[in-house]
Structure prediction request, 277 residues.
Amino acid sequence: MWKMINAENAIEAMAVTVRFAEPISSVLLKRVIRDLERTTTAAGLINRQAVQGFQVDIQGPAGTAIRQIPMSGMIFQRTSLTRVEGTVIQQLAQQVDIQPTHIIISTWRYRRWSVERDAIIELLKGAFETIAQAVALSAFRIEFLDRFYFEGDPGSSVLGDLLNRDSGFIAPHVFEAPNLWHSHTGRFDDVSATSRKLLQINADAQELASPPSLVGRHSVSVTTAAELQFTPPGLEFAGDDAMTFLSGTLNDLHASVIALFRQAIDSGFQEKHGLAE
Prediction:
């Protein structure tokens, strides 16, 4: 039978991304990192590491001059002790990644949405307001990675017991595929004259590589994502409404992701595992 990777849910990871319409300056980035140092320390993300990268800048009408502009950022992490089959190991639990072009908050220890949303708001207090006052924003994104595995002979697994054949978001060929497969699809919905929402479902069949007791088990991962995109020059804020907008947008995108997930997963499976509530 198909099972969730966790006892309480199938969520392996969740990430929230905010992209900027243009790279922020090094001076502004330092201010944002200082803001994040305060909030991440309070939240227990005490492991830090600087990251280096570059941006390709093509100059001239014919693109004759190409420069690699150094770019720097910072990653803040929190780890937790986890018992895996009798052995206590340290695993990454939460991460904040700030770069000149975006900020990503990720968690591998999902609790419930209200808790995760409030944690994200607390982490971004100060930093998000600093960014929103200086540059326009181009996109907000939420994505969930859910994982399921089959307990038993893989040859007896029936994919229709897990995924909804009639969802419209899962490629029909995967229900007859004899082995590994993937189904990646999505669509854009207009939100306003200057924004649209991208909805995505990526489903993949894989063989588990960990933990040891599940190595080789047939697995299906389902990534659901909703992304609010703004046309150039991007979304600009006036006044003190940035955090209010962020909270409302996260709730809206989360609702879209949940609706996608419920379309993709078989209704019987949802009811059996309490996912339809």
Remarks:
- The helical segments are 26-42, 113-124, 127-134, 242-264, 267-272.
- The mean pLDDT is 91.
- The chain has two domains: 1-10+145-277, 22-53+68-135.
